Amino acid sequence: MGGTRSATKGKRIDELDLLKCLFILLMIAFHLAYFGDGHPYVKNFVYTFHMPGFLLISGYLMNVDKPVRAFARTLLWLLVPYVVMESGYVVMASVLPIRDHISGLTPAVFLSKLFLHPLGPYWYLHTLIICRAIYYATFRWIRLSTLSRFIIIGMAFYGLSVAGLVSAGCVLYFLLGAVVRQSRQPFLSIFHGSWLAAVPLLVLFLSPSCFNRESLGGVLIVYLTISLALAAFPYIRRSRRLWLFLGRNSLVLYIFSPLFTICCKAFIPFLAFDGTRMLFLLVSLPVCVGGSLAVARLLDIVHLSPLLFGRKRSLI
User: Fold this and answer.
1) Which of 70, 218, 259, 276 lies in disulfide reach of 66, CB 3.0 to 4.6 Å?
2) Residue 93 predicted with pLDDT over 70
3) Can you give the residue ranges of the Acyltransferase domain (predicted)?
């Protein structure tokens, strides 16, 4: 989520926007609890790669050469939507009978969920803010070799994972993305598109023991999924502009889609006749995507986007 600018020329990389579109649509699809509960095996497989893929791209795209002021501004405009949306989610969880329900919300519990142990879908922003801050600080102020810096970052990430503040299986991918960036190699020279990726990916799909982000199998699933998606990219023509638009605005979809995944539960009584639950997905996914874009557009119209995202327009 966020920008997909080239590491060298400052131009958008369409292939990364494609990946972000794929990952955000899968995230929304399996945040629809009724659909996800009906396909637990596929859900576990998708959860192995979709958010790690986002963190990998985020690590690759982050520019540690930014001046401190510019970096602080970037971090601030991740923090603001995180605080607003996570606060709302925690309060909602205390009054609604959802899976993350909180019994007896107190100021201490609220602050714990907000700053230490995020509740619900907004953990990604919490993790991203921490990863970016540590990565930037290390490369900005520690005068050691690149390898030594990455060792320090890895130790910091490990310590935070042991403390339960981040997931080791997620920060690993941000770190891998940063390593690719510092190698000065273009993303597409490391991640090659290949239809042959489908073969080992199918083998891994049939091996649920590999559905672990921290395992070698998990890393391979992430790499092969990206490879397969990149192989398909040249063949996406008619809908390419839509895919790229959604990829550019994946942050908006990520932030606002939970508002609609909850509302889509209202469709269940009318669509329960479909045992595959695919009809529910086909109805709910456009509602979540369209609703999120509509909210972002409304913020643009009433000039609230600068307060939430620090820019004139929410939609890019």
Assistant:
1) 70
2) yes
3) 14-296
